[in-house]
């Protein structure tokens, strides 16, 4: 029996490259081994994601159906009433979710009444005993502190892709803006949820670069979502090729090895995967899935909760409870 792997923040590109390019079965075997050292491999966290404000976003993320400039079929919806959001959270908890993430299609948080309402939502979900997460766009240090005081457990802000490829995907903000918000979240003592998307047209080098950025942060993000591009009609990336599931397995396994204590989330793209393919992702170290009401993940299709619970049962897995660990500065 070898010693438990250690957490490292000094990974080099060459080291990650060598892991990423291992023969696939060897890579999955290593990732599954590391996963068992750090996590209970029988547990999968079910996180529910709710869009609390949909569409009409001024940003130009080329994968996103919520950007106002693209002609998609997304129905624009103003910020939901607080009580309605809390009702969704209660239902999610009853369905087995231990984490509730609220997403608003904003470029950045503004200090206005809508933000005050989000603060109330955070307090309400926290009182339900769920991990509460938000993804609201860019955030200042002061806004992050307000969210933390309201009980926010995690803030999602994905890198999306590598620093080098970033401007091919988004022109209305920079990679440094992303890092800046993540730093503000950290400073406030909120856990970080940050990962990316594959299938945007990036190279393997870009994927490795993104993983390198995440794994060399002073503290690894506690949560690392790995998404496959959900191709939304009307967006510039609508005709991209479907992401091969083996590519997802490779990304998940590499993320698991270099960030062993993080929750690695098999996120968007599950709709195009069979249960068999999702099983491979769990074997590679994914230990969380997103679920959404009405079988959608924000604005794209997603399996429903009953289908997910059935899959977990078939694979001998069980939903994880709320984490007891808190973010350490
Ligand atoms: S990904 Fe977020 S920031 Fe980008 S267009 Fe969509 S809603 Fe706006």
Automatic annotation (TrEMBL):
The UniProt record lists the keyword Chloroplast: no
EC nos: 2.8.1.6
Cofactor stoichiometry and binding remark: Binds 1 [2Fe-2S] cluster. The cluster is coordinated with 3 cysteines and 1 arginine.
Chain residues that bind [4Fe-4S] cluster: 57, 61, 64
Superkingdom of the organism of origin: Bacteria
Catalytic reactions of this protein: (4R,5S)-dethiobiotin + (sulfur carrier)-SH + 2 reduced [2Fe-2S]-[ferredoxin] + 2 S-adenosyl-L-methionine = (sulfur carrier)-H + biotin + 2 5'-deoxyadenosine + 2 L-methionine + 2 oxidized [2Fe-2S]-[ferredoxin]
Keywords: 2Fe-2S, 4Fe-4S, Biotin biosynthesis, Iron, Iron-sulfur, Metal-binding, S-adenosyl-L-methionine, Transferase
Protein name: Biotin synthase
Gene it is expressed from: bioB
């Amino acid at each position: 029996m070898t010693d438990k792997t250690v957490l490292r923040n000094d990974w080099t590109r060459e080291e990650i490259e060598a892991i990423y390019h291992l023969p696939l079965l060897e890579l999955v075997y290593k990732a599954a081994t590391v996963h068992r050292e750090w996590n209970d491999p029988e547990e999968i966290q079910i996180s529910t994601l709710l869009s609390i404000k949909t569409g009409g976003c001024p940003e130009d993320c080329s994968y996103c159906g919520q950007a106002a400039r693209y002609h998609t079929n997304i129905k624009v919806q103003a910020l939901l009433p607080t009580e309605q959001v809390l009702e969704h959270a209660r239902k999610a908890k009853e369905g087995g979710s231990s984490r509730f993430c609220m997403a608003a299609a904003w470029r950045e948080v503004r200090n206005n009444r809508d933000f005050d309402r989000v603060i109330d939502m955070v307090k309400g979900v926290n009182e339900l005993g769920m991990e509460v997460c938000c993804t609201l766009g860019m955030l200042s240090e002061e806004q992050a502190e307000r969210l933390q005081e309201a009980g926010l457990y995690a803030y999602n802000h994905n890198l999306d892709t590598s620093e080098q490829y970033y401007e091919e995907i988004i022109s209305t903000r920079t990679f440094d803006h992303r890092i800046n918000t993540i730093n503000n979240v950290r400073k406030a003592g909120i856990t970080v949820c940050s990962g990316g998307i594959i299938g945007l047209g990036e190279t393997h080098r870009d994927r490795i670069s993104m993983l390198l950025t995440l794994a060399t942060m002073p503290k690894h993000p506690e949560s690392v979502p790995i998404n496959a591009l959900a191709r939304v009609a009307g967006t510039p990336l609508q005709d991209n090729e479907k992401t091969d599931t083996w590519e997802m397995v490779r990304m998940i396994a590499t993320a698991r090895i270099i960030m062993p204590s993080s929750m690695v989330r098999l996120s968007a793209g599950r709709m195009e995967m069979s249960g068999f393919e999702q099983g491979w992702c769990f074997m590679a170290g994914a230990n969380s899935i997103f679920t959404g009401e009405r079988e959608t993940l924000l604005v794209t299709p997603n399996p429903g909760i009953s289908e997910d619970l059935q899959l977990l049962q078939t694979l001998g897995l069980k939903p994880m409870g709320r984490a007891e660990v808190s973010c350490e500065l």
